Amino acid sequence: MGSSDSKLQFKTMFSKLGENYIKHNDHNFWKMLFIQPLSIDDIFTVISPDDIRSLRKVQPANLGTIIYKCIEQLFLFSQPKNFFSESTSAKNSLHLLTRILPFVFEHDDDGFVSDLFFNNVLPGSANLLSVVGGATSSNQQVIEQEETSTNNTEQASSTEEPATTTTASDQKTETQTQQSTSVSSEQIEQVKQEIDQLKQKVEEKLENNNSNTPSEPAKKDEPPVEPVKEAPKVEEPKETPKPVAESSSGKKKKKKNKKKKGVKEEEKTVETSVSSTVAESNAEEQSETNEDASTEVTLSESPATVGDEQSTISQQEPQQIVEQEEKIEEQPVEQTQAVSAETTNNEASVSDEKKPLPILKIADMNLTSSLAEVMLQTLMRCLFLPDFTVPLGQFNEDNYISLKSDSLDENVLWQVGMGVPLTKGLRSASWEQMENRNDILRCLLTCFSSVLYRDAETCSEYDNKFLSLAVSDRMPHVHNLVYSLLNFVTAYDPRGSLPYSSQLFTDHYTQYIETSLHVLSVLLQHKPKGYANVYHTFFQQFRHTLDMTHLYSKMTLLLRNVVDSHNTYLPSSQKLIEFYEEVLLLLWLILGEAPIFRTFVCKELNITELLIPLLFIIQLHCKQVTKFPIVQLAAFTILLLSGNREFGVALNHPYKISTPLDVPVFEGNFADLLILFFNKIMVSDKGIIRGLYDCMLTIIANISPYTKSLSMLSSVKLLNLFEAFASPRFLYSSEKNHQFVALLLEVFNNIIQYQYEGNVHVIYSILRRGKLFKDLTQDPDLEPIKAAIMKKHEGKQGAEQPFIPTHEWVQSWRPKLPLYTITTLIDTLTPDVEKICSQEYALKRMLLCISKTQLLLVYCQCLIPS
């Protein structure tokens, strides 16, 4: 936790963002937002939502700049040369992005997000006098007051010949080269005079400052030149902050900062060579001219090369050079007066190698990338940095630098399991490293959260550009991220060593596992337009036997905790994990994207271990309206598995275990369990899961061709369910209720055609209720039905108009019902069954008759020529 002084200073600096436009290269200001040792709780406490909303409204350019600065710090921290740098600025950047971005996405009517992250344009730059180093129009009076000290020089220079500025696009390169080497003697003499004036003016200001200081009265009589020489030494560490990572543009900025140290270097320059003075002055003029060149500077703009700078420098007039140098000469003096002891101490606490860089640094190295892509790539790299998120002892820098997005590096994985042998010794991460991982993952989720601020009508069509970038092949460490998150989640064992151990100790891993599950689920759910999701591609190629076995067993263990926690001898002796819903969602997504894995678990592994937890979750929440999505997800997972033939075959295993499922006692297999359970859920439903009836009946229809034998109890329950759905009161009460009847008829047809011999109980139940099937072949009398429906809705005011069946509606679906096979069976076997039932030992003879009929059918099929 940060100290109260750090939080107060951070709050003060952040409040200044809403007052005036802060220059992007004002390092003394920006670094104070990154060097304070604050936790994420401190950041969320200090920065209120109203502060961010107000900042976006009043000073959008400052808000865009601080977002860029955060990304800049993370980018530089993730470079290989800075692996072992101090991480306070990177942590603060993560916390600031996590805090600010939700309010940036909240209202994007002004195009703030698209301008900053995808067009690389600083928001609000049109309202600035100068985008880089300028001020807002509301602060123009303040700027004018600060420039009153330079009016005399400006008026004097205004009488000279007006300067003309040319650009590279207006003149050819040869003309620029000639101008860069031709400086008249009159211009040289003029520069000398202006420099002398500047020296006198600075000396006068220093004398005035010394005369106003009561603690040093003896310095009035001292020569005024000595303080001028010492002034740059005081400001040198503030004016020339050393970058974390340095490129060619960074070296240029060092040269520019050296020109800002004061009059001392100017004096030496005048004494040695006038031509070098002009060149140095033009270099400074070029740096400031580039900053004030337009009112809409993009973040992707890169500094010019050295040759371009020299060619542009030669085009500046001496008058403009003198005016610009006057401002530069005054800046160290003014800043010297504002230096405090507290700021000096804060600077001493941070090494020169960890100070922030100017804006546009990232753009210099990624000219073709948007800021959003750079941010996501940087966050992905930060997930696998040595001593920040990965233990230092297992890191291999050579492999890391040459790693591609589709490569796997075992040395940076967070946990053993899939992708890395269990025998490989990976070091355990510290709590600080785990917290850093969690912060980065939460920042990624924040970047993906823009869809939460869309209306329900437009949400389905909304293109989440951040998420589309995250699932593209331009992201690094894709395989490392998938294996690390999966291994981290599956390594958790919810079973305690002793009863009530979860009540005695706090489990800190759960929050990290929840965040990992959220990130994986979001990445797997997204389907970008125009290209494939790299995470979908990964699971489509997921085929390693040991990895698939490990993933299934661990995911089943986590879901099994829901059953075990509700089925203990000692109440609440085992803790229920809070993230079992996220585990279920992730399992459903993986099964949907990994067909090889889905077939493998149904054929090679015990799929019934997964079936019991899924059914129990449905039973646990089927009467809660708020939990309907969880019930729906569990039902869809079973539906997805039922599409595989191996799943239906696996349900023929005998059911001999005891489970807390609310089903009658029976002797049979898991297919009986599935039918009895769905029958119980649908019969006792109060309308909460009405939308899942077709899903449950489809599951039964999918497994029916492979069900070798159903018990008498499940056969009777299946016919009872058909009777309830085929009754006129239910069948004609809704426009789509006939679909339930069609699905049950498909179940009976599959059993008759493929599993006739082993399902005599189903055949007998069909014969006993043959009238139900016969009634469906005849045209119904709709008048009594209409009268009953209207009478039911008479007393209801304001309710929706009830559905009224018509003969045209009945004729649209009744001829399509698959009744032929069933009616043929009824017509063939009913006379024999009735005859046998009238004699002694009726049941035994009936079963024998059915078996003989089956043999006769098989014999007849053999006689039919192929």
Automatic annotation (TrEMBL):
Source organism, top-level taxon: Eukaryota
InterPro entries: Hid-1/Ecm30
UniProt cross-references to Pfam families, sorted A to Z: Dymeclin, Hid1
Record's GO cellular component terms: Golgi medial cisterna; Golgi trans cisterna; membrane
Record field: compositional bias (Acidic residues): 282-294
Compositionally biased spans, kind Basic residues: 250-262
Feature: compositional bias, Low complexity: 148-188, 271-281
Biased composition range(s): Basic and acidic residues: 217-241
Protein's UniProt name: Dymeclin
Biased composition (Polar residues): 295-314, 336-349
